[in-house]
Specification:
This is Ubiquinone/menaquinone biosynthesis methyltransferase. With 242 residues, this protein is α/β, with parallel strands linked by helices. The chain contains nine helices and seven strands; from the N terminus they run ααααβαβααββαβαββ. It has one domain (25-231): Rossmann fold (3-Layer(aba) Sandwich). The structure holds S-adenosylmethionine.
Length: 242
């Protein structure tokens, strides 16, 4: 009887551990459908998390956006992509910046998240709304025109997109020379939650370097995430014969 009880407790413990692990990685090891549905269902609550103090740090937000604002300049023709945009935190932050005059393409595959984004955009001035194009799409199939983008943001999503390699390659192709990728990587101590996804410690930076990105900087950010900035290199300057 006692052995049966111990065994049953062990089985329950293992089941609980497995379930918790799946929940912590957004069910992303169960395939894209799990991620899409869980985010669609939780979209309303998701948006609420930004009101928590860890997201309300204006200086940090400024630090995060500054390189992109510099890259896109005041150019109304600049195109910036918010990949796996969710309810559009990055899109909305960029739209709020006077220095940014360009267009944003917001891409996500969870209809519920995009519904929330559309709802909040409707509260914005029509001029701001008209600068956002929403695309409901799986980013693993997203392929931008070569050298058409000033910057791409992929925030709090790189670890749950699998495989991520083709998307990183597509970002590299789509960026103009000198263009920027702003992304996140799970902080030290969380990488073990994502086996096989190159999220532990410096692995993600190494991956970006292998693809061709340069000037890769990793900044501590929130408890679960660090943010990363990486640049597509400019073509080498032509040397002129003396
Ligand atoms: C943690 S949320 C991050 C949302 C937003 N980038 C932010 O910073 O708040 C992750 C988002 O990635 C999206 N996502 C995950 N895998 C995706 C995929 N393969 N294609 C498109 N969107 C995806 C989810 O639908 C969800 O909206």
């Amino acid at each position: 009887m006692t052995i049966a009880l111990i065994l049953a407790s062990l089985v329950l413990l293992v089941l609980f551990g497995v379930l918790t692990w799946h929940a912590l990685n957004d069910f992303s090891y169960l395939g894209g459908a799990g991620v899409r549905h869980s985010y669609s269902w939780g979209a309303r609550c998701y948006d609420g998390k930004w009101r928590s103090p860890s997201y309300q740090n204006a200086a940090q937000t400024r630090q995060l956006l500054a390189p992109l604002l510099e890259q896109a300049g005041g150019d109304p023709a600049a195109v910036v992509v918010d990949l796996a945009c969710g309810t559009g935190r990055f899109t909305r932050l960029m739209l709020a910046e006077e220095e940014f005059r360009g267009k944003i393409i917001a891409v996500d595959f969870a209809p519920g998240m995009l519904r929330e984004l559309r709802r909040v955009l409707q509260e914005m001035p029509p001029a701001a709304q008209s600068r956002v194009e929403i695309q409901e799409q799986d980013v693993r199939q997203w392929r931008p025109a070569a050298e058409s983008l000033q910057a791409v943001a992929l925030l709090e999503a790189a670890e749950i997109i699998h495989p991520l390699g083709p998307t990183l390659e597509a970002i590299f192709v789509g960026l103009q020379p000198g263009g920027l990728l702003l992304t996140t990587v799970v902080g030290n101590g969380f990488g073990w939650l994502f086996p096989g996804r190159r999220q532990a410690r410096a692995e993600f930076s190494d991956w970006l370097a292998e693809i061709g990105f340069v000037e890769i900087q990793r900044h501590p950010w929130r408890r679960r995430y660090d943010w990363l900035l990486a640049r597509k290199p400019l073509p080498p300057a032509r040397s002129h014969p003396p």
